[in-house]
Every structure is written in structure tokens, then in C-alpha cells.
Amino acid sequence: MSERLMIEAKGLCKYYGSFVAVQDISFQIPDGQIVAFLGPNGAGKSTTMKILSGYLGASAGSAAIAGLDVRRDRLPMSRHLGYLPENGPLYQNMTPLELLRFFGEARGLDPGMLASRLDYVIDRCSLDQALEKPIDKLSRGNKQRVGLAQALLHDPDVLIMDEPTAGLDPNQIRDFRRDIRLLGQTKTVLLSTHILQEVDVIADRVLLIHEGRLVFDGTPEELRRDGTLEESFYALTGNGRVEDDEETGE
Length: 250
What we know:
Mean pLDDT: 90
CATH architecture of the largest domain: 3-Layer(aba) Sandwich
Strand content: 25-35%
Shape: globular
Order of helices and strands: EEEHEEHEHHHEHEHEEHH
Number of helices: 9
CATH class of the largest domain: Alpha Beta
């Protein structure tokens, strides 16, 4: 594994008045890791991921993708990053093909490159049967695949995904996990999840956040050293619930 740092957080803080969403979060993720970002409801997962993607500004600290500051080097950084937010906005009246072409042109891909990348993401995300259907008519699983396809369209080095399997049925979850493992062979992946089983299936490493602070950074094996993953989660988060977070002020 290369030791090139692909995701870096240094002392990240985010305040909404007196409310502390994120406090002094620091970590580094090298090239080629798949990292699961865990935490109970309201812990600060989504806030941290939005800061890392450049979608949200930090109150203090800094973040970098592929060595590029997410605020100072916003445009060059974005070429290295694919971002799939939870319930990511998709233009519902477009078809997947129309949407992907729109994003490709917006990213400045030349016609030849765009055609090649369209072929790749349509195949990679199994969208061939849904290309001409309006997005608002697609299943939750196919909408997630469209979101993943747009995140992959420009061939980024880094993928940040917020609850990518939320709302999917068991078959869709299995397929999506397989896709993430395959993508992790060539890309650095950070994904939040509320499903502890997903950690075992997908992740090389776990970051656990509680009340806006990082309380664990290690492998799944290290997290379960004194019991099951669930027992360790409860011990580190004060019996917090394992859910997705929607932070105040977003």
C-alpha cells in the first residue's frame, strides 16, 4: 500500500453558535484504504464529511484531499474527489444518461473522454436497464447507483460516501458492498455507515466519532478486541444509538 496521504483532517472544528458539531478531529488516510466512519445519531459524521468534501466550511482546522487544501485549492481538489452524499440531490426530471452527460460537461470532460467514462460508469454501476427512465421513477437502489456513477464519472482518486447503503434492500446492499470493495482496489474510500456488520464486510479501518470527537481509530479487529463490535461501540459512545446523524444547523 502506498503511504501517499489522500485524505487528511487537522484539528477540524465546526460550531453553530454555542452548539459544537465537531471538535478537534484529526486523522490521515493513505492511498488504498477503505475506512468506515461510525458514530451515533448527531455525533458529527455528516458534518465532518461535508467539510472534507468542501461542501461546508470548518470553523477551525484544515482538510486536504490528495494533498490539496479543500478551501484554498477547491477546484483542483474537486478533480480528485467523488462525493456521494446521503440522499444526494439528483435532477428528478432527467434520465440517468442525461444527468451523467450534464455532470460530465459541467466538469469539462472532452467528448471522447466523456463517452469513454459514460461507458465505464454505466457498466460499473449496472445502469444499462435504467438509462432512459426518469430518475424519479427509479427504485432507491437504482437512484443510489446513479449517484455513485456521477461520483465516479471523472475517475477520482478519492470517494467519500455518506450512508451509501441506507434504504436499500438486502440484495442491493450486498451488491453495493461488492462494488465498494472492488472500487477500493484502485481508490481511497471513506464511507459513513450505521450498520456495524458493514464494517466487517467492507472496511480496512474504523474511525469512531462521539459527541463531535474522535474516540477510536483502528482496525475492525482492534475495535472488537474486548468483545463484539456492538459491545465496543456501546462502550465508546455511552450506549448511543447506531444511526445516521443529521446535525443541528445543517
